[in-house]
# Entry
Amino acid sequence: MAINQTGWAPLARLDRRTIGWSALLASTILAGTPARAADAANAAAGATSLSEVIVTAEKRTENVQNVPMSIQVMDTKTLSQFNVNNFNDFVKFLPEVTFQTLAPNQTIIYIRGVSDGGNGNHSGPQPSVATYLDEQPTTTILGALDVHVYDIARVEVLEGPQGTLYGSSSEAGTVRYITNQPSTAGFAAGYDLQGNYVDHGNEGYVAEGFVNIPVTSNVAIRLVGFDERDAGYIDNVFGTRPFKTSGVVINNAPFVKNDFNPVESYGGRAALKWQLNDNWTITPTVVAQHLSAPGVYGFEPGVGDLEVNRFAPDSDTDKWVQAALTIQGKIGNFDLTYSGGYFNRSLDTLSDYTDYSIAYDQLFGSGVFWQDANGNTLPTPQEEIIGRDRFEKGSNELRIASPSTDRFRFIAGLFQERQTHWIIQDYVIQNFAPQLSVPGWANTIWLTDQNRIDRDEAAFGEASFDITPQLTLTGGVRVYHYENTLVGFYGYSENYDALTGYGAGMGNMGQNCIAGDAFRNAPCVNLNKTVSATGETHKVNLSYKIDPDKLVYFTYSTGYRPGGVNRSGSFPPYSADSLTNFEIGWKTGWFDRSLYWNGAIYDEEFNKFQFSFLGPNSLTIIANAPSAQILGVETNIDWRATQQLTISGAAAYNHAVLTANFCGTDQATGQFIPSCTDAYAATNEGAVKGQQLPYTPAFKGNITLRYTFPIMGWNGHVQASGLYQSMAFAALRTQDNASLGTMPGYATADFSIGAERNNVTVELFLKNAFDARGEVNRYTPCTVSTCAAAYPGTPPAVYVVPIQPLTVGLKVAQRF
# Structure
C-alpha cells in the first residue's frame, strides 16, 4: 500500500496531546457473545471450526451458510474487532456497498453498482437501498440514518433486489441493523470508553454502556446509552471573493476556524421483553439519537488540502426517534409476527450559499437583480439556506410462516407504510428588498415550503418446496400500490419573478397560484400533484445442497422504486424504475468448516432508472434515464488457518454502465429526449452509452489477518486490514465529470493490538494508518458547469469529501 509523500510523518505528529488522550482510554469491544463463546470452546478443544452466524434475512432464523442468497453479515464479534462505531467504519469492509455523502447523516447507499448518482435532494427520488432498524423501515430521502453501532447483534446487507419480502426501495438491496434484545437469562452490563486523535485535527471520544435486567422470570428490560464526539479535521481558512457587479471583495475573517467540522452525538435505546407464555412474546422498543454537526465535510482542492473558504455559518442538527412494537407467537404450528413502528426525524440546517451567489454573478451578472428596498444593487448579496425537514413514518406488517422444517413451507403477509415530509428551504439574502422577497418571508429570495406524502401498501408471499432432500425451489411475489403527493409552494415572489424576465405570476418560471389552495405559511400553493401506480415484483430461486456444507443456487428477482412528482411544475412526473437480477451463487464450507468460501456472479438490468440533476436556476429535476447494466462478481472468504490465525477477505468487481445514450430533457417542454447522437449526449448535459455509473469503482476489496496469543496471563491479539478500491466517477453526465474530475483509486490500512482478561479489554488501534486521502464524493453547491468554473479571484467551487485522516485511539471495556 502506498505511503503518502510525507512517509511516516503523520505518526510523528502524534504529539503529547495525543499521548494524553491515549492515557484516557476508550472502547467498543462487546464480549460474551455466542459467537465468541463458540470460538473459545473450539480453541479449548483444539478445533479450528468457525462459529455459526445467524441471520433473519428471509424473516426466519437461519444459519447464513444455509441461506441461498448473497448476504454480508458483520456480527457482534466482527463489529467489535473492526472498531465499528458508525456506517463509515463498517462499509469499507463491504466491497459490494458504496455510497455518496455530504455529511455523516446525509449518505446515499448503493449496492452492486446500482447507482443513479442523484443529488439526494429533499424533493428527489426515493433511495434504491432500503434501511431497517430491527423490523421497522427507516428509509428517508435525504440520507440513511447514521445509526450508532453499539450493542448491535449484527448488521445484515442483503444484496440484489429484495422486492418480495421488503418491497419499495429495496430495489438494489437492504441494510438491516439488528439490536441485541432483552434477555430473562440473567443480569448483564458493561461499559466501553474510547479516546482518539485525528491527524490534521483534534481529539474525540466515545462513552457507551448497557444493562440487561431480568425483572421477573418472564420480563426483562435492556437499556443502552452513548455519548460520542468525532474530531474535526477540515479548516475554514481565510479567503476573499469578488462580486463582479458591485466590485466589492468580501472576506470570511469572522468564520475562520481550524477543525471546524466535529460531530457531537448522543442517544439511547430502551427495550422490554414480556414473555406471556411459551408461545407469545411482546417487545416494545424506543430508540432515539441526536446529532449536531457544524461545518462541512468536503475540502476545496483549489483552496488547499483539508481546507475550505466558507463565508457564513454551516450547521446540521439531526434528531430522530423510533418507537416500535413487535408481537411474536404461534397459532398451532404457524408463527405469527406483527411489527409496527412510528418514526420521527427532524433536520435543521444552515448552509452557506455564497458559492452560488459569486458564480451566478460572475457568469450571468445576476447581482443587478439582488437589490435593497430602494432599488439599489446590494454590494454583498451573499445567500444562505435555512433548511427544515420533518419526517413522520408509520408502518405496519403482519405475516405468518409455516414451520421451517416442513417440506413445503411459506411466508405470507401484509404491509402498509405512510411517510410525510414537510420541507422548508428558505434562501435568504440579508437586506433584500421587501418588495422582491417572497410575501411573508423577510429577506427570502426563494422559498420551498412543501409537504410530501409517500404511501405504500402491499401483499407478499414466498413459498419453498424441497423437490428432493438436496434440491429446493422457491417462488415469491409482492403486489404493491403506491401513491405519492407533493403540494405547496416553490419559487420567487411575483415581483422578483417579473424582474428576472420569467413572466408574471407568483412562483418559479411563471407557475401561477392555484385558486383556493393554501399550505401552512406559504404565500400560495403553486404545486399540487399526485402520482400512483400498482405493480408486482417476483422471485424464483433454485438451490442445490451438494453436501451439508456446500450449496449452489440460481436466483431471478426484481425490485422497484416508486415514481414521484417533479417540484418544477413545468416538468412531468417521473415513473417507477425497476431492477431485474439474474444470479448464480455458491456457499461452501471446507476442512471441517474452518474455511468458508462464498460468492456470486450476477447480471442486473437497471430499467429506465430515475436520474436527478440540476436544471435551470439549479432546480432539481428527475427524469427516467435509459437503462443500465451491471455485470459483476463478488466473493468472500473466512479461514481459521490455525487456532491462533484467522484470515478473512472480500472483493467485488462491477462493470456498471449505461446501455444507451442519456440525452437529457428538453428544457422548453420538460420532456425526456428518447434518442440522440453520441456527440449530442456528450455536449448537451447528457451521457454516452458505456459511461460507468457514478460512485461505482470497478473493483473494491479488503483482507484482514488476526492473530491471537497469550501474554502474561492475558489473551492478546494483533490485527491488520488492507483495503483498496479503484477509481470512480462522481456524476453520470459527461460534462459534469469533466468539471468535477474523477475520484482516484486509493488504498488504506487499519491496525490494532490489544488484550483481554477477566471481562476487561484494552486495545490500541490505528485507522487509515498511512493517512491516505481517499475520496468518497465530489460535488458543487450549484449546477456543476456554473460552480465548477474558475472566475477571476475565485477558485472552482468543487468540494472533495475524503475518508477520515489517520486516527489513533485507545479503548477499554468491561463486562459484568
Remarks:
- The domain at 9-815 is CATH 2.40.170.20 (Maltoporin; Chain A).
- The mean pLDDT is 89.
